[in-house]
Write a structure and sequence with these properties.
With 288 residues, this protein is α/β, with parallel strands linked by helices. It contains 7 helices and 14 strands. A 7-stranded mixed β-sheet has the order 10-9-8-11-12-13-14, sandwiched between helices. The radius of gyration is 20 Å and the shape is globular. The mean pLDDT is 96. It binds ribose-5-phosphate (R5P). The site of ribose-5-phosphate has 16 residues, from β11 and α6.
Length: 288
């Protein structure tokens, strides 16, 4: 078994290697002056079972190309099996034609990853679980809920309600609620345009409860910040937010800092730069 990584999340790859007591494979991402990427694999991989840890987070296009080129290099170097470990799967939110002539980029990604030579994919909390079926190779789809649940169990909060910030996240919210012995509530959210969300109703009992909102992704943090306000207006005491993928683009960090949320718990599927590390943000590792 050998583990390699590109530049997307070297810290996570290092933590996985430490967990498994396996050294990180010797490789380098090279960049030519015109921006093209090349990969140097600096040890033999002949006959080996290879795992490439490379979430396709921002810079998404560079990280995708690093992954594809690394898989190609490993294949041509006679690796026996190559598993693409993509804790965050970029372009997952383009998984269907929402309007006429839309691309389905999540499927395009599945095609190129398979064509490059991946034999298997390991990923986490796909925005749309049906993306598993875009691949004709095995996909291990792991949930972040067990890691988040363990953290909240240890906090021993009373009177808990787990809140899904939209109708699509109810199954995830129920899974967390069952693990920590909480009731559930649902926010009825509408998206009039990309990156803008509007809250219509909140279904469930919030009065006097400690609320935990759970989402797959926090991107601009609009959904979660607005949701927290709505929960407070309906009588919630403390409001926590958690997610697997901390995309945190645009004004997300400012929004979270200014929000009524007491703590935001995320995982490290996407690396968090120093300027995004605010006090109320807690990062849990998915390495195990
Ligand atoms: C949407 O359906 C997703 O589950 C998240 O709710 C969404 O990506 C969060 O986006 P933002 O943080 O920009 O509101």
């Amino acid at each position: 078994l050998k583990i390699f990584c590109g530049n997307a999340n070297r810290d996570l790859a290092g933590e996985i290697c430490e967990y498994l007591s396996v050294p990180l494979g010797e490789s380098k991402v090279l960049r030519f002056q015109d921006g093209e990427i090349s990969i140097a694999i600096n040890e033999s991989v002949r006959g080996a079972d290879i795992f490439v840890v490379q979430p396709t987070c921002a810079p998404t296009n560079d990280n995708i190309m690093e992954l594809l080129i690394m898989i190609d290099a490993l294949k041509r170097a006679s690796a026996r099996r190559i598993t693409a470990v993509m804790p965050y799967y970029g372009y997952a939110r383009q998984e269907r034609k929402a309007r006429a002539r839309d691309p389905i980029t999540a499927k395009l990604m599945a095609n190129v990853i398979t064509t490059a030579g991946a034999d298997r994919v390991v990923t986490m909390d796909l925005h749309a679980p049906a993306i598993q079926g875009f691949f004709d190779i095995p996909v291990d789809h792991l949930p972040g809920v067990p890691i988040l649940a363990e953290y909240f169990r240890e906090k021993e909060l009373a009177d808990l309600v787990v809140v899904s910030p939209d109708l699509g996240g109810v199954t995830r919210a129920r899974s967390l609620a069952e693990r920590i012995g909480a009731s559930i509530a649902i926010i009825d959210k509408r998206r009039p345009e990309p990156n803008v969300s509007e809250i219509m109703h909140v279904i469930g009992e919030l009065e006097g409860k400690n609320a935990i909102m759970i989402d797959d992704i926090i991107d601009t943090a609009g959904t979660i910040a607005q949701g927290a306000r709505a929960l407070r207006e309906r009588g919630a005491k403390e409001v926590y937010a958690c997610c697997t993928h901390a995309v945190l683009s645009g004004r997300a960090i400012e929004r979270l800092a200014d929000s009524v949320i007491n703590e935001v718990v995320v995982t490290n599927t996407i690396p968090l730069s120093e300027d995004k590390r605010i006090d109320k943000l807690k990062v849990l590792s998915v390495a195990p």
